[in-house]
Fold this protein.
Amino acid sequence: MSNPIRIAGIGANLGGVRGDLDAVRAEMNALIALGADVVECYASDLGVVADARPIPGRVAELRGICAERPLAVTLHAPIPIDFMDRDNIDLHRRAARVSVELAAEIGAGIVVIHAGRTHPDTWAREADALLAFERDELSAIGDIAVEAGVRIALENISPNPAVIAGRLTSYSLDPAALARQLDLLDHPGVTGCLDYSHANQGAGLLGLDPIAGARAMAPLTGHIHISEASGRPAIPSIAAQHDWMYFGIGDMHAPLGTGCMDLDALADVSQVLPGTYAILELQGHARAMLGDSLDRLRTFAGRVNALAEAA
C-alpha cells in the first residue's frame, strides 16, 4: 500500500538573519512556538561559507543550533546558481557543491536550487542544448547529493525584474515544462520544488492556468514553497519588492489568506510525493502574519493528505 501522507511537515523560511547566528536561534525558537515542523535556511544569509568553502567554526555552531531543536531543516542554495550559465559554470558548480556539503553538515535533507535561465535570444537558438546541459549538471550534483544523503529540489522561478525587462527567460516559468525536464532527468538525487506563488506569476505572464501547472508538477514534487501572489507581473516603475504586496504585483510573498490564490483548488491537485515538506515563504512586514499563515498552511496540508488517503 502506498504512503498516503504526502505533506510530512510544514514550516517557514528564516527571515533575514544577515549572518547573525543568535538570530537563527531566535527565529527557530519562534517557529517551534508556532508549531512548525521544519525550517528553511537561505545559505547565503547564514554567513558560514566564503569563496565556496565552509567556515569551520561557523558551520559547527550552526550544526549545533540545528541539532538542539526539534525542527527538520532544509537549505535554499544561493538563488544565483544557474546551470545554464555555461560561461561561469565552474563557479556555479562550486557553489552548488558547497551547498550540498553544508546541508549534510547541518542535517538538511533538501537543497533547493533554482532552474536555469538565459537570455531570450539564446533560448530561441539553443533551447534543447541548454536543457541537455542543465540535465548533465543536475545529474552530476545529484550524484554528489546522493552520496551526501541529501536531495536537490529544482525550483520553478518567478518572472523576476530581469525576466520582465526581457534580459532573461526560463522554461520553468511554466511548471509543466519543469516537470518534463525532471522526467527526462530521472535522477534519484533530484526532485522538484514547486513554488505556488512563482507558478501563479508565471501563469499570469504567459497566459497559462496555474492549477494545470500544479497538477502537471505534482507527481514530481518533493518540496513545496508557498505564499500568495496575484499573478500580475511587477512593473519597472514599482521597483522595490517591499511595495509589491501593497500593489498586488510581482513576487509579493504575501501571507496565506489574502485571497490572491485559490488554495483549496491547489490542494486538490497537489498529490505530491510522500514525505514532502511545505515551506511558507514570507518576507519583511508579511512575517508579522506568520502564525496565521502557518495555521492556514496546516489546513492546506491536511486537505492534501486527506485526499491522498481517500484515493
